[in-house]
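Hi Q.,

Before the meeting this afternoon, I wanted you to have the heme C prediction in hand. No need to reply - just skim if you have a minute. The sequence and ligand are here:
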Amino acid sequence: MNHTKVAVTTAVAVCLTATAGAGLFAVSGLYNFAADEPHFPWVSATLETMRERSIETRAAKLVVPDLSEPGRVVQGAGNYAAMCASCHLAPGVEGSELSRGLYPQPPNLSKQKVDSAQAFWVIKHGVKASGMPAWGKSMDDESIWSLVAFLQKLPQMDDPQYDQAVGSSGGHSHAGGHETGGQNAGHGTEGHVMEGPMHSEEVQTAIQTHTHANGKVHTHTADPSTHQLRPASAGATASHP
Ligand code: HEC
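Predicted structure with the ligand bound:
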């Protein structure tokens, strides 16, 4: 055998051994998939690079609309408080049951500014094997861009400014196809039931209802930690005139 042949044979053998080893490891059950234990550093690094590159590549094709259009930030605020703050927090809130328990941890978007196009892509499509849902299944693009407009302002907001933005928003409102946990398929109709993080009797008994100005009735399951993420005006007991 000449040198080239030896090198090629060795390379093939190494590859086969590595593949077989990886396969055995995969089926062995040794890798811990628990969310309360971090990945091995090389797994985290690989996943992170793949996720970042994937999002960057896809977001680069998006055309960001004018995010300063009137009404966007306020509409985004209402939807953020209703759908995102339980994981991504709000000014003055350090953590929630959901945010603490998730791995990877949801970034605190009241402290961290995000790139507009990338945020849109992530909100619309979600992130695999993380708690981040694909909101595009229930929300139209315009409502997602309004959330992005709000996210650009959020890190500069303090507690009262956040409450005010959410309070003036009319709460949870967006267009798009809906299939929520409730009987009604749509937030635009009279009322719907939002499925909250139900995990105990105490949470289930804390189901709260509030009525919006337009007569919409919202029922939330409010656990004590996510409850405080909602400002008084969109809060569980509020009944708007
Ligand atoms: C159940 C928890 C959960 C909810 C609810 C949730 N997210 Fe996320 N979100 C996550 C997690 C976890 C990540 C991080 C994913 C990762 O790092 O792989 C994330 C990532 C993101 C990112 C990317 C941040 C960055 O650093 O680039 C944005 C933007 C985002 N979410 C916006 C939203 C918006 C807007 C909503 C509401 C419509 C929302 N999320 C609702 C869990 C959630």
